[in-house]
Amino acid sequence: MIKKILIANRGEIACRIIKACKEMQISAVAVYSDVDSESPHVLMADEAILIGPANPSESYLDFDKIVDAAKQTNSDAIHPGYGFLSENGDFAKYVNDSDLVFIGPDPDTIKLMGDKAESKKMMAEAGVPTIPGNDGELSGNVDAVARDIGYPLMVKAAAGGGGKGMRIVESPEELESAIEAASSEARNSFGNDTLILEKYLDQPRHLEVQILGDQQGNVIHLYERECSIQRRHQKIIEESPSPAINNKLRKMMCEAAVKAAKVVNYSNAGTVEFLFQDGKFYFLEMNTRIQVEHGVTEMVCGIDLVKWQIRVADGEALDFTQNDVKQRGHSIECRVYAEDPSRDFLPTPGLIRKMILPEGSGIRNDVGVSEGQEVTSDYDPLLAKVVVWDSCRNSAINRMDYALSNFIILGLITNQPFLRDIMKSESYRKASFSTRFVDEHFSDWELGPPSPEVIATALLASKSAPEKVSTVSSRDPYSPWSNKGTWRQNI
Amino acid sequence: MIKKILIANRGEIACRIIKACKEMQISAVAVYSDVDSESPHVLMADEAILIGPANPSESYLDFDKIVDAAKQTNSDAIHPGYGFLSENGDFAKYVNDSDLVFIGPDPDTIKLMGDKAESKKMMAEAGVPTIPGNDGELSGNVDAVARDIGYPLMVKAAAGGGGKGMRIVESPEELESAIEAASSEARNSFGNDTLILEKYLDQPRHLEVQILGDQQGNVIHLYERECSIQRRHQKIIEESPSPAINNKLRKMMCEAAVKAAKVVNYSNAGTVEFLFQDGKFYFLEMNTRIQVEHGVTEMVCGIDLVKWQIRVADGEALDFTQNDVKQRGHSIECRVYAEDPSRDFLPTPGLIRKMILPEGSGIRNDVGVSEGQEVTSDYDPLLAKVVVWDSCRNSAINRMDYALSNFIILGLITNQPFLRDIMKSESYRKASFSTRFVDEHFSDWELGPPSPEVIATALLASKSAPEKVSTVSSRDPYSPWSNKGTWRQNI
Amino acid sequence: MAETVTIGSKSYSVNIRRSGSSFRLQIDDRDYDGEFSRLNNGSLEIIIDGRRSITYSEKKLDDSYVFADGINYVLRRQSQKVGSVVQDEPREDLVMSPITGKLLDRKGENGSSVREGDVIIVLEAMKMEHRLRSPRDGIISRITSIEIGGQVKEGEIMFELEDE
Amino acid sequence: MAETVTIGSKSYSVNIRRSGSSFRLQIDDRDYDGEFSRLNNGSLEIIIDGRRSITYSEKKLDDSYVFADGINYVLRRQSQKVGSVVQDEPREDLVMSPITGKLLDRKGENGSSVREGDVIIVLEAMKMEHRLRSPRDGIISRITSIEIGGQVKEGEIMFELEDE
Residue A232 CA to chain centroid, in angstroms? Predict the structure, then answer.
């Protein structure tokens, strides 16, 4: 019976897990580094253990310090959150070997899914669609291999990386010269001219399916998430359901994900990621942990993933079946980052001098920072996730724009204005996007010109402002003040 | 087409309606009295009109000032919220006659349902169960009338009130003397000894069914709410579904409510209230407006009642049928009041010096006040509603207790500690309660003794506290600080 | 110097001695040793007997508002004169308004003879009526001169009784 | 006295004159008349041309943080010397750190010959790498002496070039 959990993480996900613990009447132990001594997860937890300096390898990534902290506090289990040690099979094994429950799948499953080539092969064998390509060395009738894969395709160096030894081939005529060029480049760059062919997806969407399994062998899915809106290959906006697929495709993809999970006897929460284009989906990888964007699934399916992570790790069986899981309405998440979208998403540390969160029906704030806190450059710049739910996608977008327009955060640059502009854009509303969305529509994004009120506020704030006199005579009571409001301003 | 709505209300419900407007891209006009010039609803609205002094009869209840304000701002419609003018049929008619849309049912329906005797009669005729009793003057074979109604019953003066001329009769033997006593008391108190007999419910629950109708004649229900936890005959805690009824009773009661609404051609949102005891329900009255506790229905059914109020008032038809409305999980609302539960719920005005709201999965805050605001004695003491959702009642109670234990509000006395104690009580958790719950279990409630930390904080806060030194050496890094946390403290 | 802290209907004699970040707190007859520091978000971290609490507080004259252990408290502080053990008896003759609100009705005037339990003053606050009753039989020696409908402040004297 | 306010990549010449609760604001060549007051919740109510805005702000040295129109803005203020029209040309020879973070790598030393686009400095902040490239061909005349792994502040000089 799990009565106390150590959370080997920080920021919003640590806070999220601590809340689940408190609601389940389980004690929560935080660990923290020097610079996090006043971070929200430390203040929220029942106990907090300092485990080292800011550098993650000496604190949040240190197996021994974390397991020691769990032992010292008589914790029963460790929740790794996402990032840090969450997908480290060796850590999971070390936790289990220390007679503690690791809240996640089996260490072997983590390791297997961490080997991207091996897991792709395994999935292909199990009948889960993978990106078509030749697996071994390129030989024999290359034209036939290429025809099987289909055009456009990519010739790439097996040893490659960084765009070198790589060519996109649009038609059979271009194949031979592309292979020659790539082969020579690969030889020069990597000393190895082995090439592989792979289908090229020029406008892929990133879709993923939430999986939940217990130790009794039950595996169910909680439908899909659409995570195509990314920058620097990191998601910034996610939603569920995906507006890209119909129910038939949804069923196929979700069943493929369950199949993938069952192949590896998956237990706990996990995510099967797919690329999707032209009506076809391809296995990309499996994430063996809770995802940042799990909230949209929780809102649509009405199932608390973090609580279930804890329950199944504790040996409980799922008390519902696949048929009980229904999608209802539409949910969107926006990640509020300390970064400057007008300067290539450069991180922007700073002190949070004021923060007021949006409130109301269908609005959920998962926050990892608080007023008065210094956001340092030591960790991920994620400050908060705003998650909304409404009955349909269009209403959810309007609600998100309302929520963002009431998210006050002063003291550092954030991507809040950028997120608002995406919510307002036709391209996002039409949902006809791929992972190239930000590059295609928002690569030159700049903050719009400020209204005179913005400048006036900056110049007047330092002066002692008169208090508002609220007697009738102070101004014409019947003068309708037109509040410009918020969302209407920034079209 | 409604493009601008004037909200003839204040506090949290005005804020709730303004948010719905903003999400629907409808302009919102606030009206306010002198003392409300900096209230949240005024700051949130697109425009705000001062309509008079604090006294409601000269501002929030003044037909002309409100309709004038709507005219001046070119509003298309008026939303009355709850309380104030929301159930005033004359006002609704005045609004309609002024070529403005009244967001609510037809004025005649409001008037009809406002006449409690008349509406009871109408419902009885339509086959909706009402509290058994004789309607006219008590005459003929009184014993037979009493036997038909069943014991226990109540003898009460038709002209009565305030407990005078009223007797509870447990058995036939007591009937005659009770009639004599009541009759004489009634004659002395009211100059009228007409008596009526009515079934006496000694442990009734207050259940109610949410109704939504459009102008096309469609009427559906959104299931029930349990509102038995009351003080001074005002609800403080509501939930949905009701833990008291099974699906068969639920279906019967909801169908009775739809029948009641259809009898009066009901359109817009409304609530049919029932008393429930011993497996039977009885029509009490119909509220022809949005209710304070509508949020629990929204969370369980996934339907936004305020947005639909606006849509159906604008002539839109419901785009879903009864079969589409499903209850999912469990929702609870706690009303946070400026009142002192240890002093007979005496109102406690004051200045809100600090307010931090609970955040997280399944937590919704509907708030009508803000930090820095003076809560005056002019209006209802409702400060905020905390609404939670979770998969089952027990989880929802735990989530509510978590949420309340993270609701920081300093500067005045509120009922927050009282609400927490109810959430923790066995009697509430067992759900075996009636409208007498507070009287039976919490009439002598007092705040528990404070921990030394509470006293220490009060005494230390005025002194300049040392800043936390967060270097490793400042204290033993491996000392597990046991945070007493919150919910565990106050058992 | 000891002071009296009142929470709800209960009072505590308290005293605190501070040295740097350490303190010794006395509540009635019990002593507690602790440490405290101010955090960046404005809260206090208090450690007593190895247990940590994060608390928030605000102050207004003699009232302290404290959030701790998941509960919002209101504390009233009065400093005690050293050596003073005699406390004022509550004066039963003096009836003060327990709330800030509006005067709705005044059922008596100077010289009126009243019985225990008679309603003398009716106030309204937040849409609710509050009746102030006579605490004993007697004669009204003084009664508020605020006009009906006027504002009444919490703690303001509403009426005073004298013996018949 | 006019000052320059920079928001993102754009700068505005601004000036404000205040009299009681009224103000006249000049932004580049346009004038706005308005009124303002401080509300109890700490926000400002600003009315310009009959339109009301509720705004929030915080200040840190020359930076102002403003929430208005549903957007969080960061404004940098510099006072302008009257009569000064010559602005400093950005010095292409001087490369400063755009972020506060950690020095991951230094690919050159004093006297190194470099080509435009060469990566000279690698920084890390918030789990992301940032490469500082040489803005032109030249020779490094000065380079940061911070050790690898050490902290770098925003605006700190990372390296300077001179002609070959």
Answer: 13
